[in-house]
Automatic annotation (TrEMBL):
Phylogenetic lineage: unclassified sequences, metagenomes, ecological metagenomes
Domain Bacterial type II secretion system protein E: 200-214
GO cellular component: plasma membrane
Name this protein carries in UniProt: Bacterial type II secretion system protein E domain-containing protein
Any matching Pfam family: T2SSE
Keyword Nucleus listed: no
GO molecular function: ATP binding; ATP hydrolysis activity
Keywords assigned by UniProt, alphabetized: ATP-binding, Nucleotide-binding
Length: 259
């Protein structure tokens, strides 16, 4: 318990985005991802590993007896008076279960656009984009590059009192008071497309989609942008230019992209 608490508090203090707990042949390796780069923090005896994984599973409300299948969960903790959300992913490997914990610190998204590290001219263009009454704004980049943080920071600039701001996410990463946030649930058929269709009947001004993954979600998002809504979303591409190719690849008609 002390080791897990130490890991979490240390990760928050160091500004880590992810904690990796990896069982090796003779030891357990702990690494933090800080500013996109993994750093080894600690080598521990392998016999500690089962107890640490069990502790994390209990905290995340997972099945501690299931060691053969991947599991995902969520933990809410308080570190130094700050509420931190942790997303837990457990994957069986040849030496045991590997645990990756994504650290979601709401302080990082509430710090404002100025803290994102954009050049001043890019910042001015971005501010202009999120102030538009309609259109679609796609934030692209590789995993861990700050796409979600950028979108949440953009939402924080908007007037939640005068605008109906809604989000569809999988999962809801940061809880915002001024938004209506929908968590998708594939098990019961509540996917991005179904959530979006329902949202459009809720008189939205701004819609944030966690990620555009398939043709139907992309098509509804583009149509929403063309019918007077501001749509913000992320796309998994390495750069902005590739997003056009990605949308074509998903199956969006060229005339819709041109619009």
């Amino acid at each position: 318990i002390k080791f897990v608490n130490y890991l979490i508090s240390n990760a928050v203090r160091e500004g880590a985005s992810d904690i990796h707990i990896e069982p090796k042949e003779k030891s357990m390796k702990t690494r933090f991802r800080i500013d996109g780069v993994l750093f080894e923090m600690k080598q521990s005896p392998l016999n500690m590993h089962p107890a640490i994984v069990s502790r994390i599973k209990i905290m995340a409300n997972l099945d501690i007896s299931e060691r053969r299948l991947p599991q995902d969960g969520k933990i809410k903790v308080n570190v130094g008076g700050r509420a931190i959300d942790l997303r837990v992913s457990i994957l069986p490997t040849n030496h045991g279960e590997k645990v990756v914990i994504r650290v979601l610190d709401s302080k990082s998204v509430l710090r404002g656009l100025e803290q994102l590290g954009m050049e001043s001219d890019v910042m001015d263009v971005f501010r202009g984009q999120i102030a538009l009454p309609h259109g679609i704004l796609l934030v692209t980049g590789p995993t861990g590059s700050g796409k979600s943080t950028t979108l949440y920071s953009a939402l924080c600039q908007m007037d939640g009192e005068k605008l109906n701001i809604s989000t569809v996410e999988d999962p809801v990463e940061y809880e915002l008071d001024f938004c209506n946030q929908v968590q998708t649930n594939e098990k019961i058929g509540l996917d991005f497309a179904l959530s979006l269709r329902s949202l459009l009947r809720q008189d939205p001004d701004v819609i944030m989609i966690g990620e555009i993954r398939d043709n139907e979600t992309a098509r509804i998002a583009v149509q929403a942008a063309l019918t007077g809504h501001l749509v913000l979303s992320t796309l998994h591409t390495n750069d902005a230019a590739s997003s056009i190719t990605r949308l074509v690849d998903i199956g969006i008609d060229a005339y819709l992209i041109a619009a």
